Here is the input.
Amino acid sequence: MLEVRCVTKIFNAGTVNEKVALSDLSLTLNDGDFVTVIGGNGAGKSTLLNMVAGVYPVDKGSILIDGVDVTRLSEYKRAKYIGRVFQDPMMGTAADMWVEENMAIADRRGKRRGFKWALTKGDREHYREALKELDLGLDTRLTTKMGLLSGGQRQAVTLLMATLKKPQLLLLDEHTAALDPKTASKVLEITDRLVNEHHLTTLMVTHNMKDAIAHGNRLIMLNEGKIILDISGEEKKKLTVEALLGAFAKAAGSEFANDRALLG
Amino acid sequence: MNFTNWLGTLPGVVAQGLIWGIMAIGVFITFKILDIADLTVDGSICTGAAVCAVLMTVYGVNIWVAILAATVAGVLCGLVTGLIHTLLGIPAILAGILTQLMLWSVNLILMGKSNVALPGQVYHVAVSNLEERLLQTNLTLILFVVGLIALLYWFFGTELGSSLRATGNNLHMSRAQGINTDFAKVLGLMISNGIVAMSGALLAQFSGSADINMGRGAIVIGLAAVVVGEAVVSKLSSGFIVRLLGVALGGVCYYFVFSTIVFLGLRTDLLKMFSALVVAFFLGMPYVKKRYFKKAVKGGKKDA
Here is the structure.
């Protein structure tokens, strides 16, 4: 479903600020895989997601989605295959547009946008149904401006938008990090439901080890732009935070001293 | 000038205001929808006037064809700014300044001199400041405004139009949803400058000439009409049609205040200063409120 082949990304190459964000990284996701990605600050988690999404070009290597080489495709063209939710709840939606207008935009992801009416009556009903399933009372607020919703509500709608037109790949970049614990768990619950319902291949970056263990069928840990741990199946189900910390110390040869990773 | 005389000038003031209102609708598209301050308009309004005046006086072209040609010329001006911005990665505001400067030369070459007369007594124009034609002029302009608003309402309700609105709102989201944001910006700039050039063509007919200096400070007048119009109607409704009507009305309000000031005997040299101060006041107000009157804003934010 997703193939990342030997991807390298170096920021500020040739300067004193040179930073190897990804180093010859390879990763293959099978159809329906839900992979959680953890690692300290600067480990390359977000860079990995941004590379797959096409935010910046790769220096070396290639990226394939569903067998299609997307390495040279710009971000907006790749969007055809990818649903995304960002860390910042403000980033995933257009604040001055209505909830239903935002959804209509997401509904046409990857399609040509022409002179057809952006929002039809049928669309509206469809969106109302989808919002109802979120159980956040948003199905009565279709014509509310997105900017008036809370961060959690916005993330939930962004999730819905990312999956409204089934993506080949769902990218979640710490999408609960900016929310309070209660809202975060609600959004994660919705995430699980949508992923299972649509059988989505998913890559979820998180800072929270417990979440990384509790969700998905596979876990990878990044350090200095490399995958240092890749656990799936039964082995993942038995994982504990302590075991992860131990594994990290062993693999990276250092104490995993990132306090944010210990939260929760 | 006495009061009765001043009252007599009002139909002309309204007409002039409506023309600037049309121009302001163009500015609204870039400034409010795309979130770009596009300085191309100082040049493209004159380009529209020049194209219209030259086509009519030199080539004897029909007025409506001339207006259409002026609009197309404006669309091309917007295209240039859009390409400088998106292909060369130059900030939009600077891209607009560059095109504006290019247009100064283009406009001089188009006209062959700094002023082309287009007297309403000689040519068959659509709008004119000749007293006996003011009623017809105002009706024509109202039709222009209504037609333009209807067209824009339709366009921004389409899939393509929505993608422009999303682009102005949130670039990250738009790209993540598969919108070609560069294309959207270029298209928006083209539409905006097309409208601005059309208003330039109307202004040349109305005032009886195209002049190389007529665009100087146009963006500020357009912004003034936008901010005044938004301030006037924002309490009524946030609907798109109402907002656009407000902008057109903003142009009229602006010219009304303008003519009143002139009537009261203010030096005309100060008019541009006045325009700039009005814009600075309205654009700066939200920040000042937030920065210096934080409590007052918090208390009044119940409906947010």
In short: The radius of gyration of chain A is 19 Å. The longest strand of chain A covers residues 19-29. The mean pLDDT of chain A is 91. Chain A touches chain B at residues 53, 75-77, 79-80, 82, 84, 86, 90-97, 101-102, 104-106, 108-111, 113-119, 148, 161 (CB under 8 Å).
